[in-house]
Specification:
This protein is mostly helical. Strands 1-2 form a two-stranded antiparallel sheet.
Length: 490
Amino acid sequence: MQGYEVGTTLRYRLTLASGMLECLCFAGVVFGYASLVFVLKEDKYFSQLCVNIPDTNSTLTNTDCSRQDEQFSLVFTIAAFLNNFLNIVNGYLFDRFGTMVTRLLGISLYTTGTLLMAFSSATFSELVFPALSCIAVGGILLLLTNMQVGNLFAAHRSTIITLYNGAFDSSSAVFLIIKVLYEQGISLRSSFLVLSFCSIIHLIRTFLLMPRNHIPYPLPQSYTYGLNCGKANAYNVEQFEKMRDGGMTVSQDSNTPPAPEDGTAAQDTEKVASFRSCVLSWFFLWHTLWLSIMQLRHYLFIGTFNPMLNRLTNGDPNLVSQYTNAFAMTQLCGVLCAPWNGLIMDRHKGKPRAPGETEQEADLRSSYLSLFLTSLQYLLFSVCASIPVLPLQYLTFVLQVLNRSFLYGGNAAFISIAFPACHFGKLYGLVMSTSAVISLLQYPCFALVRGDPFFVDGALIILTLLAFIHPIYVFIHCRKLARHREDNTQ
């Protein structure tokens, strides 16, 4: 029996480590788009959109590539939109069909995208549109199926979820590696063919180190999964998941959020909250607004990064390359920043709770500090990004990766804390899909930024204030619950 437990523990740790590598090296590469744009411009993608404008003061001509920049921005806008919007479908697929089906779909899309990029060229520049979109959607499916790995380590659940999201952010540095290899003479095609062949690793992990359905929470005793797990054990897990999804009661280990006094998330005290009641709760509304505002700013920053550098450096290609490399290098730090957010959210684990306080209430109490710090980081990032001073952009890069790591890790962790586990996939998908619709505003914003970015930057800084509503609401909610417990004990 002891040998069986050692084998199970080893499987858990291999799943954790391999999932970390998968997120770090593949899942979020699309967000390193700024580095890829540099390479695509060198390879003359969409170069037909550049026009020569005669200089009125000399016989020389200037090249206007603003339409080319718009096209590159549109590629990222569509990929980022689909990356988030399709999460409502992804969440349903994950909840309905389980891990294996979801991962096989994600691997297929990811491989298709890397192959399309490998066989694209300046002549077939339009292939970049479906290629980046497939890579984006395939990558988020890999992340979605990996976040449940936190359920294997209950005491560090939020830390692992945020760690995976940080690795997802850091994977954007893969495009920096492709850029550096390109400058050393290795073609774009060779790099993307290597990424395509790596899909074999994803398939092996899907069958050996991931469950067919879901990893339940709380975890049953002696839970195992993968190709070698026994039939009886697999049957017990399926029964457990059916009980969890169909009749999970509100208890000390439940993730069901206590109903706010205004009744917007009213729920039966005997049954798990319905999906509808979760969506109509104030928690869901403020959390969606919190994510959408910050995500819009991050997407606009990435989508306009190359034109912004061209403007601040007066078109110096060496400086543009230098700052592009610096930005991409800071993305590697995402995996180091994100776990701090998880540690903040898990800081109460192992400590005695207040009399009558459930584990879910303790998790909520820990979350509002994380939400507030994320909003504060976003404010500082927005202010620095709005100041047109080139050396200051180094600080902007640091704040951007720090805030982005906290944002996405905190998003997934909060949903897992505040709502029932059986709705995680659907709610995570709906939050990301709703924020994706709002992120479409980045394209008209890009058209405005081409002129004077001052007004767009100023409007986004003002919007920052709305992001503070969410942590304040969670804080007030927790205070009300604490007062209610005190009244009951008296």
